[in-house]
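Backbone-to-sequence.
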């Protein structure tokens, strides 16, 4: 991998929890959006924080929680979004991912989609 390509592209996985303020209030696990419409941002954040604690403490694997619990269709790939460059993701998501070291997991990130934790994988 040349140094120029690594600076322009990252690879990441994420866990997304949607809530009542999300742009699209439906997901693969909640196609009617019943749960999402009744989830406050605070509830979504506390859920994600609990997941993050379990991952960081080694109690759970990022990919396993993503597969079960993420509201993004990337859940089917353990949260993997594949490689992306600047300008492809929502700005807060992009900025956070580019700021992480490989293997590092972000704090809570808010986007129009919901709240996320991001793991940079490449």
């Amino acid at each position: 991998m040349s140094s120029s390509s690594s600076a322009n592209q990252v690879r990441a996985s994420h866990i997304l929890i949607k809530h009542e303020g999300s742009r699209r209030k439906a997901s693969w696990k909640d196609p009617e959006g019943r749960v999402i419409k009744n989830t406050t941002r605070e509830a979504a954040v506390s859920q994600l924080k609990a997941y993050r604690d379990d991952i960081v403490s080694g109690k759970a694997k990022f990919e396993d929680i993503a597969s079960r619990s993420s509201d993004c269709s990337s859940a089917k790939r353990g949260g993997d979004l594949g490689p992306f460059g600047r300008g492809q993701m929502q700005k807060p998501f992009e900025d956070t991912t580019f700021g992480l070291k490989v293997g590092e997991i972000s704090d809570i990130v808010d986007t129009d989609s919901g709240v996320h934790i991001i793991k940079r994988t490449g």
